[in-house]
Amino acid sequence: MGELDGKVALVTGGCSGIGTAVALDLARHGADVAIVDILAGEAAKEILSAIEAQGARAVALTADVADRQRAPQVVAEVQEMLGGLHILATCAGINRDAVIWKMSPEEWEAVIDVDLSGTFFYCQAVAPVFREQRYGKIVTVSSINGLRGKFGQVNYAAAKAGVIGLTKALAKELAHSHVNVNAVAPGFILTPMTAAMPPEAREAAVAEIPLGRPGSPEDVAALVTFLCTERARHITGEVIKVDGGQYI
Ligand SMILES: NC(=O)c1ccc[n+]([C@@H]2O[C@H](COP(=O)([O-])OP(=O)(O)OC[C@H]3O[C@@H](n4cnc5c(N)ncnc54)[C@H](O)[C@@H]3O)[C@@H](O)[C@H]2O)c1
After folding, report:
1. Maximum distance among all alpha carbons in the chain?
2. Residue 182 sits in a domain of what CATH number?
3. Distance CA 88, CA 91 (A)
4. Domain annotation covers residue 178
5. Which one of 122, 135, 156, 247 is the catalytic residue?
6. 122 belongs to the catalytic site
7. Rg (the chain; Cα; Å)
8. Which residues form ligand 1's pocket by a CB distance below 6 Å?
């Protein structure tokens, strides 16, 4: 018996890094999972097999989370394919780092569109479903850099701080419908996103971590799953760091 037996989860950004780990961990605890990703397709096949190997049903849908029209379609398709929807984890995200005096309007907009508006579109699309059924769990993915800022990341820090404001406001709006809404704020986690950083920037990030090691996607997934269980039923509007103490 898994804690999430009978539940259906939609995980954006499920084709890589933290999103894949979240999809697998939710499945390991009994949930059926829809992964939604701009790169779903060939890339998703192996992940779907891994989810199915946990005994869960799995589907993949291709979508750009920044596409406002697509979000309600995706939610309806997931409900149709998996027979319901109870959990949303918004893991899709990008970074386009540059200092402000070199940041192009496109770099600003891309990060706000995907990281902040993409989170908003999927929260807005599931809200009527969760309100109607008086049940739901939403976990957004922020970042410690949305709490503390980071040199070269005004776009990313603004988007991730925006995700925190969205999460707290939405927690208040959905509380009377018994929907929990929380944010996780990872520190430096080993994923393709951080693999693309220059080696010296990666070393500097790890050097900031009192626990002395970078985080893994599974470290984040464990918290996301917990927030989706009834053991976390009295936690809402919270922002929880998973960062080995990187930002204390
Ligand atoms: N890795 C870290 O250290 C770290 C730290 C803090 C926060 N985060 C956040 O965690 C989340 C996952 O990051 P990750 O490190 O696993 O990154 P990743 O690049 O490994 O995975 C991101 C996934 O999102 C998908 N994606 C990107 N743009 C999309 C779009 N427009 N529509 C749909 N899907 C899209 C990508 O295809 C990819 O599968 C992001 O929101 C990121 O900002 C990561």
Report:
1. 54
2. 3.40.50.720
3. 9
4. yes
5. 156
6. no
7. 17
8. 12-13, 15-19, 37-39, 63-66, 91-94, 114-115, 118, 141, 143, 186, 188-189, 191-194
